[in-house]
Amino acid sequence: MNKHINLLLLATENLLRHGTKSVVVCLCIIAILTPFITAIAISEGVREQSLISVNAGADLYLTFDEFGRNSAIPLKHLDEIKKVYGVTRAIPRIIGRGYLQNKLAIIIGINKEDIPESVSFISGRVFENAGEVVIGHELARHFRLNPGDQFSMRCQQRKVFTVVGIFSADSGIWGASLIGMSFNDAGALFGKQDVATDIQLHTLPGHNSAIATDLYDIFQHEAYRLQDKQIIELYVKKGFMLKEGIFSALYVVAFALGVPAILVASGFGLSERKKEIGIMKATGWQTLEVLELISFEQFLISLLGASIAIVLSLFWIKIFHGVFIAPFFIAEMPMLPAFTLPARFLPLPCLLSFFVAFLLTMVGSVYSTWRASTVSPVVSMKS
Fold it and tell me: Containing domain of residue 337, as a range?
């Protein structure tokens, strides 16, 4: 055991003695691992927040079906839906997008009494009268809007809205560029009256099958779609898996370009290392001991590089708000977000990053070390 500890201490001393090589290899590891760790952390954080929203949402989502996709549902059957046994609440919503000057915003139309209690405000209050809206903190910051200010949107410039409240950042990333208004105002904005994007159904546990049967009787001559919470959750998970897969595919290209840099950097000062190995062999070192020493060196440099990469990822997300990389995982996100993104630093990606770095540095050094340690010490010292 003492021998292994001594080899570990000697490996640390070698890294400090060959400072230039250690710094170069460490920088290569950091450059490769930091974007990967940052991207996975953002993706996992946004996925978790999305799933929390899904789990806190309705049990069933009712829409019409058009060409195999969701379409607006008329409200003529809303009273019948509310009377279905097992349905505790039926909430019609309008969800769309529109431009506030040059910035794309998410628009939600919902009745005041159906607004979730979890929504909090930086300032102001919830809308109560026609023409009143609440806006996300990102829109408020970008356009310098405060409660009492008025604006109109590109899709309906004749209609003037009055800001009465500003969403807090604690409401989630989805509220950053959100405009919330009454259901009727949203219908007038989009020119769609007496229809909803969907109807959220909150139900009693175990009644979804019976509710689906009753809805079939109501909509038996119309094309409708009924989706439960599990299907919505599956859509969310598939969407993030697709984005992570696309990012991973693109990252493989950058990773492949970085591998030669690590391999070259690991062999930096190779002739000097051969002389050292020759001296070790001449003084009685065994080949396995030399390889163990090199392995300890690569372990330490990989651990240092991966640790620094994780710390830099934390700074990238918490201080710089995922600049340049966040838009890849969050649609319509500006290149320079003004708020902290949700992120989860899971153990598996961090451990995987360390093992990848360790594998690359080992590939770049073990073979050359083995070659140098298996020849005559005289030959190694002359290299």
Answer: 2-52+236-382
CB hemisphere CA count around 260 (13 angstroms): 4
Please compute the mean of the pLDDT values over residues 44-51 and round it to a whole number: 78
The domain tally of the chain equals 2
In a domain, 188, yes or no: yes
User: What is the C-alpha separation between 136 and 382, in angstroms, rounded?
Assistant: 70
Taking the CA atoms of residue 290, residue 293, residue 298 and residue 304 in that order, the dihedral angle to the nearest 10 degrees is -170
Cβ(42)–Cβ(329) below 8 Å: yes
pLDDT digits (tens, 9 = 90+) for 77-96: 899 999 999 999 999 999 99
Q: What angle do CA 18, 264, 4 make, to 5 degrees?
A: 50
Q: Out of 31-45, 71-85, 138-152, 236-250, which region has the weakest mean confidence (pLDDT)?
A: 236-250
pTM over 0.90: no
Residues near 352 by Cβ (< 8 Å), separated by ≥ 6? none
Instruction: Return the biggest CA–CA distance within the chain.
Output: 94
SS3 299: helix
Distance CA 8, CA 2 (A): 10
Contact residues for 131 (Cβ-Cβ < 8 A; gap 6+): 159, 160, 161, 162, 185
Strands (E), the chain: 60-66, 69-71, 73-74, 87-100, 103-109, 121-124, 132-135, 150-153, 156-167, 178-181, 195-196, 198-203, 224-228
Q: Give the dihedral of Cα atoms 202, 205, 209, 212; nearest 10 deg.
A: -10
**380-382-383 Cα angle (round to 5):** 65
In Å, how far are 57, 60, 181 from 207, measured between CA atoms? 17, 11, 32
Is the same domain home to 191 and 245? no
